[in-house]
Amino acid sequence: xxxxxxxGSVFSNIVRAPEDPILGVTVAYNKDTSxxxxxxxxxxxxxxxxxxxxxxxxxxxxQLLVNDPSRVKEYLPIVGLAEFNKLSAKLIxxxxxxxxxxxxxxxxxxxxxxxxxxxxxxxxxRHYYQHTIYIPVPTWGNHPKIFTIAGLSVxxxxxxxxxxxxxxxxxxxxxxxAAPTGAIVLLHACAHNPTGVDPTLEQWEQIRQxxxxxxxxxxxxxxxxxxASGSLDADAQSVRMFVADGGECLAAQSYAKNMGLYGExxxxxxxxxxxxxxxxxxxxQLKLVIRPMYSNPPIHGASIVATILKDSDMYNEWTxxxxxxxxxxxxxxxxxxDTLRDRGTPGDWSHIIKQIGMFTFTGLNxxxxxxxxxxxxxxxxxxxRISMAGLSSRTVPHLADAIxxxxxxxx
Length: 411
Ligand code: PGU
Fold this sequence. Notes:
The chain is α/β, with parallel strands linked by helices.
């Protein structure tokens, strides 16, 4: 025993940290023993049977990898698998992108979307003259933490209007218009999380003009390419508009959702520069960011992605499976909307079918969410976001009952 550490532990003064607002929902769900429990918290795809899905094309790619004796487990380079990086840049910027053809893009493999955002943030904190980053309100809860811990100063811009349940476009333009020259702006490439509200292409064009006129630096978070519309190209339009004007930008990509590779942690960070020699110097500095964090990225997930992206037959199979996931989510939106209408649930629920991507931002408040969890064993984030992919035609009636009870009993 030591007088400074009464119970003998040097860690006895550690206070318990709260659960994560999103991943903690699954922790609570797992503890619930009710047979009717439903997890609509985490944005992870489930089948109509409520099961996680490994895409058939991913299974095929894994078989090829396993059966190829030339595959070894050597370390990848610091920047990751070269082939994967090239193909990832092509996927987001387009096969005919001049920026790629002119070798103006530095791409490194990252630990899924989160890790790629973090590399970009660390790079900007070290090498970019402006340390202020603007993020939308609301946004994915991890964004402010990633940027703050990397040493950037986080400010916000208006994005969502709870009154219209749509984009606060005027507020967005005002706030970005008032941002200091050179400030970084985090943009959700498509399927904005948590609101499911994206700018139209015309609005994107206005955002682009404003940002370029003020020298604001776009940092795209692309976690849902293909999940918004079902089309990989359509969902990359926002990013491609900014690259087409010849200006610079960053893009963090995740293969968690669109290839269902969640736990494999596969992603990429690309920095589009004005010239090839700049891109090559940027890449050299990205290596210095990565090396002391985790040295070099894992090989398996990136090999799966590269196998699929480089083979036209497998690529096509992937787009069909991706479209099927997106379509199932859209059909769940319609079913939930119809079921609430049939129940005569008070309120206008048309936003359920208007919103895009994995989530519906229901408008339910914290008390209503707590009530639904307690009385109906339905788990969701406290901001009222539900992951549509967690629903099936079997569970929609249960959710509709819960929403109906919540809005009629709790103001
Ligand atoms: N960016 C956005 C906008 C996201 O929604 C997510 C995941 C990520 C990046 C990071 O995903 P990676 O798995 O690192 O590629 N958001 C999901 C998943 C759970 C979580 O919070 O990580 C969600 O439910 O919001």
